[in-house]
Amino acid sequence: MLIREMTVEDIDAVAEMERTIFSAPWKKDDFADLINKNDRGCILSEEDGEITGCVVYHNIVGDVDITNVQVKEAFRGHGTGAALMRAAIKKARTIGGERFTLEVRKSNRAAIALYESLGFMTEGIRRNFYEHPTEDALIMWLK
After folding, report:
1. Sign of CA pseudo-dihedral 42, 89, 36, 40
2. Which terminus of the chain has a smaller tally of CB atoms within 10 A, N or C?
3. Domain 2-142 top-level CATH class
4. Mean pLDDT of all residues in the chain?
5. Which of 115, 116, 123, 130 is labelled catalytic?
6. For the chain, where are the alpha helices, taking DSSP H only?
7. What sign has the CA pseudo-torsion 85, 120, 66, 60?
């Protein structure tokens, strides 16, 4: 598995992966906006030339919002998500990130277990945060 930063050439593939995974997917322009920015970025996983997952982060004065975590279904449960998260946290720390936060569907037990294994703790709930279906989000922090 190769872990690397997203490039302009990756945008179409990442946007397509996003469309197949999420009910409210980001658009190509959303991913393009991450290129060459000092306060945000996107870390990708790749196997045999195929993009298999990504993590998007945005540093806001030391608080890093992990806004997007995705792994293609065929690559889940093999350490891809953990490798992506570790790489994104490491990269975000190089640009001043000190604390990390994310939201996760309350029913997404696999993701919650992953985040907890990395040291994230649940510190709140955002009611009806997700759509299709409507669901609460857990707010998790790594401090």
Report:
1. positive
2. C
3. alpha beta
4. 95
5. 115
6. 11-21, 28-32, 80-94, 109-117
7. negative
- Give the tens place of pLDDT for each residue, 82-99: 999 999 999 999 999 999
Looking at residue 31, what is its pLDDT? Answer: 95
Pairing of strands 121-130, 99-105: unpaired
Angle between helices 80-94 and 109-117 (to 10 degrees): 50
Nearest of 69, 51, 55 to residue 1 by alpha carbon: 51
User: Token digits for 23?
Assistant: 């009910």
Query: What tokens were used for 101?
Result: 């936060």
Query: Which pLDDT tens digit goes with each residue over 3-51?
Result: 999 999 999 999 999 999 988 889 999 999 999 899 999 999 999 999 9
Catalytic residue chosen out of the listed positions 9, 16, 50, 103:
103
Say how far apart CA 103 and CA 11 lie, in whole Å: 23
* Residue 115 among the catalytic residues: yes
- Residue 103 is a catalytic residue: yes
Looking at residue 24, its pLDDT comes to: 83
The two three-digit tokens of residue 69, written as one number: 């975590």
What was the pLDDT predicted at 22? 87
Domain ranges of the chain: 2-142
Q: How far apart are CA 55 and CA 42, in angstroms?
A: 6
